[in-house]
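[job 0412] stage=complex_fold ligand=2-acetamido-2-deoxy-beta-D-glucopyranose status=START
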Amino acid sequence: MSSYRSSVLLSLTLLIYLHRGTVHGLLCHCDICADRNFTCVTDGYCFTSTSLQKDTGVITRAYRCLNKKNFFPREFPIECSVYSRQTPEMQVECCNNSDWCNSSLVPSLATPITTTTTTTTTTTIHTSLMPENPQGQGTVSLGTWELALVIASPIVIVCIIVTVAYSLWQQHSRRKHQLPYRSEDSIEAPDHPILGGVSLRDMIEMTTSGSGSGLPLLVQRSIARQIQLVEIIGKGRFGEVWRGRWRGENVAVKIFSSREERSWFREAEIYQTVMLRHDNILGFIAADNKDNGTWTQLWLITDYHENGSLFDYLNRSTVDTTGMIRMTLSIATGLAHLHMEIVGTQGKPAIAHRDLKSKNILVKSNTTCAIGDLGLAVRHDVATDTVDIPLNNRVGTKRYMAPEVLEELININHFDSFKRADVYALGLIFWEIARRCNVGGIYDDYQLPFYDMVQSDPTIEEMRKVVCLDRQRPSIPNRWQSNEALHVMSKVMKECWYQNAAARLTALRIKKTLANLGAAEDLKI
Ligand SMILES: Nc1ncnc2c1ncn2[C@@H]1O[C@H](COP(=O)(O)OP(=O)(O)OP(=O)(O)O)[C@@H](O)[C@H]1O
Ligand SMILES: *[C@@H]1O[C@H](CO)[C@@H](O)[C@H](O)[C@H]1NC(C)=O
Ligand SMILES: *[C@@H]1O[C@H](CO)[C@@H](O)[C@H](O)[C@H]1NC(C)=O
Ligand SMILES: *[C@@H]1O[C@H](CO)[C@@H](O)[C@H](O)[C@H]1NC(C)=O
Ligand SMILES: *[C@@H]1O[C@H](CO)[C@@H](O)[C@H](O)[C@H]1NC(C)=O
Ligand SMILES: CC(=O)N[C@H]1CO[C@H](CO)[C@@H](O)[C@@H]1O
Ligand SMILES: CC(=O)N[C@H]1CO[C@H](CO)[C@@H](O)[C@@H]1O
Ligand SMILES: [Mg+2]
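[job 0412] stage=complex_fold status=DONE, emitting structure tokens
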């Protein structure tokens, strides 16, 4: 019996040391690593965290490893910084001076409540429920209060046991259904400490000053796990969009069903392209796969913009000429950034959107815009001069498809053709905006492009007849010719709509034209 035990221990030790050999690491006490003698191996730090669950008042202590790849920022993990870690809910201490150095760390919370761990909290409840009346041991006369306590306490204890057992059982079944994410991470993932007092903006800025590709996966996951969904704000082809809250900040959560795993993965992948972050591209925060036991939910978390999509905004309100120029310039700037290839190690590939439309552009609170919905985007692989995924030619929204896309004549071996199809859609979006430009109290009602030529959910055939055979384009109202800004806008959109894709303006050219127009308008005021 004892020899069996010692041989198990010996092989465990061997395993740990072998593992350690490959990682060259530090051994840490790990409270959730029962199968590895409560030990994890790291190339970074050991840490201990004390955290307070606000709603229940339960205090828990966690002992884990913090690997280098999860350092955030890369150089030195914020978790271990003495400056930013004081919060009432979470306190972390790190060490790397010796193996198991973390087991003796006892981080205490900023506001001293009760520094008991979960188990002792439970016992405190038990004892305090017993009538504290030593001299009354033999007497029969209990007050009604005490009597109530005596009756209630076994019930309360049973309730506590049932609750704990249920939550353990739930945790167990949840673990069983977890998708393989990145197996080494699963040790630390459930409650990786990210500290309070740091806003999403701060965190993202700290990491993006480096590669510009976003937060480490583990940090993304812990943010996702702390989000509360508040209300549903929209439904699209791939799922629902919710407003959620993370530590008092609004975030948008796009929830994909498990059937749409590929779309979720692709969109998250595109958003995390190095150097993609830009004022006029929807800000990506995190992606996570969550499991509730029977169903996997795939989350994509981005900045939330309360004014909603450009479609929502234009339908609700009008813009003045300055507003129109600011809006169109911001969209052209975002698209030019997407399309641009930046060479170098910190470079960015050229990206084509392929689903540009007013519903996929968000309006920020200062009425500049951000391009979202990158799920159908393609990246240019310069080495092979090809697109980075196998193509399915006709994707996107039929109403906004360029003639060559409708006819399936697009040259997929030439990356610029995808950019030109984007520019065509950009022209349609500009038309939607210009109609809502209020000059002297005159403006048009909100309409989608081709509203007067096709039905509400047009087929490819219908669109092909209108756009390719009849070569129709949205009509330009006469009033646009008598206003300088609207006149320039109408010229720009016509040059986005050419049947001949090669003749269309580039996003960069449009950006420059609109910037000049904006400067000229400013001079007039
Ligand atoms: N980051 C965000 N902030 C605020 N509202 C948003 C955000 N993202 C999406 N929405 C809202 O949710 C709606 C649904 O978005 P979603 O992209 O899922 O569908 P869609 O664009 O309407 O259609 P499609 O599936 O064709 O893209 C949007 O129209 C917009 O009103
Ligand atoms: C198990 O881990 C503890 C520290 O948590 C260590 O002291 C002990 O030596 C380990 N035992 C074996 C067999 O590795
Ligand atoms: C999990 O989520 C799905 C879809 O949202 C729902 O139908 C199901 O009832 C949920 N299951 C549990 C155990 O919460
Ligand atoms: C709009 O806000 C962004 C930051 O969200 C800022 O960078 C930009 O300059 C602002 N633009 C205008 C026109 O105010
Ligand atoms: C504008 O919004 C209203 C109300 O939500 C909606 O019924 C209408 O269809 C929208 N307009 C267009 C052109 O889609
Ligand atoms: C350096 C240090 O504090 N080591 C401690 C790590 O944890 C073990 C087990 O709790 C202690 O015995 C060590 O003293
Ligand atoms: C049209 C519209 O809803 N505009 C709102 C955009 O957001 C700002 C605040 O961020 C509101 O003041 C506007 O009313
Ligand atoms: Mg969309």
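Residues 144-177 form the longest helix (34 residues).
[job 0412] exit 0
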